[in-house]
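BUG: 3D viewer hangs when loading the predicted structure for this chain

Environment: internal workstation, default settings.
Expected: structure renders.
Actual: progress bar stalls at 90%.

Input used:
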Amino acid sequence: MSSIRMSCRFRSHPLIRYKFGLSAYAVPVSLAKNAGTQLMRYLILALFFLMAGIAYVQRAAISVPASQVASDLQITHFEESMGFVQSAWYLGYALLQIPAGRLADRWGCRRSIVLYCLLWSLATATTGFVSGLWSLSGSWFLMGALQAGAFPCAALAIAQIFPVSERARASGILAAGMTVGAAAAPAIVARLLGVLQPAATSTGFFVWQLSLFLLAVPGILWCFLFVGIVPEARLPARPSAQSPLPFRLMLRRMLASKSLALLCAQQFLRAAGMVFFVSWFPSFLQKTRGVDLKTSADLSSWVGIGGVIGSLTGGLASDLLLQLTGNRRLARQGLAVSGMLLCSLLMLASMKVADIRIAIFLITAGVFCATFGGVSGYTVAIEFGGQQTATVFSMMNMVGNFGAMLFPLVSGWLTARFNNWNLMILLFAGIMAVDAVCWALLNPRTQLFPDPPADS
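Structure tokens produced before the viewer hung:
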């Protein structure tokens, strides 16, 4: 009898049962066993943090030297053509999201992420052999497609090893890895291009080609590191993967969910806006503020630092607010609404400032607010997905990356059409304001694919 009472008390503990809107769902007790020690839990998260940083640096291998790439490959109509190349990456990334997430749910995230990371790193290297616009677009499309499984795997790992009360901070740390990569990438790539220039002159390669070869190496090394540190038992395939829900039924349920529609809409808008900083922002600074390539890369990195701090503090603040108030909507959606609105206002204010230092400060503050609130996107998707976390996360991320695919293309076209680079800021601010509206309407009350009962 005492064991039964203890079991009941255990399952009613706030770390095991979590109020989701007006109802509650159970987090399987078996997850606590799979999580291992706290040290291993955060070591796995640290490896995904590192993976995220590497992935974002590799993404920037084309955007920083975009002018040089276009010149060396004799690509004309710079804004439209290089916007097309950037959009090709996001198209591949978007289209493979659901297949990659589905595979992660069935295989487990450990095996899946090693395969994905190895293949996309090799694709990064082979991009160095392109000869024109179409081969560059095709190769970059392939690299994006292979990187599609990166963050569904990371989201699945967080769902498996972290209790609900720590998932926002874990999501924030993962998002910080992305923003560290995005922040460091312009400076890393710009300096790498400078270091490799003598080698490019002596070998006959273009300098950006050599940088692509070298940037593939960290991803390959990460695969060996991850396999060596994380045993299969720490991140096994979920039991539900043995008898998965038919994809047709799963897709029907996802398409019928209003909450998932709003979650996808906010990701579409947020990804569309934030891709500005890893695509056009260095060129934007060069054109509107008259700075050189190295300075634009350094300033882009400072803006990225604001994103890193926002991701880390946003996750911590969300979990803390949840513990203090017990109000999930306030802790998740409330922070997101505030962050997106403030970001929009700060970006508009930066347009009115002539001093580049103040303008960069305002833009950095805006990025901080966006990432502070944006952590909720990952957290809500992880909590909402239940047994099919990677697949639901992939659906959200797929839609988001259609937005990321469109922004470079649309903003490049607008800039060329009206000869005004400031239209990019106006477009960004409008997108973030609408994103805040989506977050205000979003309020999922149950999991889309409920976890099994705690005693199953």
